[in-house]
Specification:
The protein has nine helices and 28 strands. By secondary structure, it is an alpha+beta fold. The chain starts with a strand and ends with a strand.
Length: 466
Amino acid sequence: MSHKRIPKRKAAIAVGGVAALGAAALLLPNANASQDGDTNASTITPKTLKSSGAVSDLAGRLAGLLGESFAGSYYDTDASQLVVNVANVSGGKSDIVVQAQKAGAKVREVANSAAELEQAAQMLKTRATIPGTSWAVDPRTNKVLVTADSTVTGAKWDRLESTVNALGADVATVKKSAGTFKTFLSGGDAIFGGGARCSAGFNVTAGDGSPAFLTAGHCGVAEEQWADAANGQPIATVDQAVFPGEGDFALVKYDDAATEAPSDVNIGGGQNVQILQAADATVGTQVFRMGSTTGLADGQILGLDATVNYPEGTVTGLIQTNVCAEPGDSGGSLFTQDGSAIGLTSGGSGDCNVGGETFFQPVTTALQATGATLGNGGAGDAGAGQEAGNGQDAGNGVGDNGAGAGNGAGNENGVGDQTGNEAGQEAGNGAGDKAEGGLEGVVGGLNQNDGQGRGDKQNQDSGQNH
């Protein structure tokens, strides 16, 4: 994936292995109005949800509504419905359950509450913080998913396995990964700092109004200044960086205050996906990642609030996915087809031949921590659309690359002309919206051969890949 900076002259900016995105969470309008009338839980039908913004919004509202009964949620892709877990609800048909169903979710009673799963994670932290291990909450199984890479053997494996066994098979499971957990410094459209190579993920506006981008924190602590070409002059300087610890993100400010930083992702072949908002991750949703080593790849979100024990230290609060990545992809953008920024590539195991786990820094958390907002504050082609009324096409403002952004039921919110495949069809946020086409076709097309699927891989020898 890539970003563009335009300091008086038009220039493509590297976005990839270590890039990130910043933005104020601007969720799409809620397509899940409560049903009126019938309050019988057995007759309430879950809402069909197509946009990631609507899914994220409903999940957040229900977490607040259910309180201590909330035990996580996930997106059922086959049914296009949000499933919310509830625990400790007497009889299973209390008023709170009915309210959740009327809000549009499918309600599922589970054994483990969010607090109980958090206690399990704390026990793992206390007893099994071992390099090469990770754990994340998986709401689909209502358990903590523990993973150990190939370096966890002998006494380390015994300690991890005994800790998981002590938690119980109904609370936690453990699996082996063939690869090795590592950070992926490198990326989409590469950026270069000293001997390191990363990528910029999403352009943002810093709290003081200056143009900037978010990237992986392990890139930000590796080098202070970054260029958009190997051996080039620096164009941006690290302002804030977190790694390891409570996240893996950095805010990097452009040195030229006149730089325009469009809110889009370059997916190769002169094609861009407009980034319209930042959204929280929901397990089960399809996501896309762009990186300079491996190009465009897709997969699903598998777990939230992941803890990863890298060789450099422990990082918490990450998103676990099955999207592949390789060295050079660090900081690359994780986003959805409808233009929601989700995460920044942190690290993982495996590669794009055999698969593996990949972890991402949530964009919403990075934005909150740095005080940045997504995009360039509404300037240029990152605007919110000239016509954004109900049922109207907002493509004039955001649709320079074919991405409409309507705000009402039945609005158009296509990904644009990205695939040569009519990807700019209706994908609005109301009931009955279409969510067709789009990036799936691009994934296949760009990854058919190393020349296209690997993006800027020819540059990966210029600097240390992360």
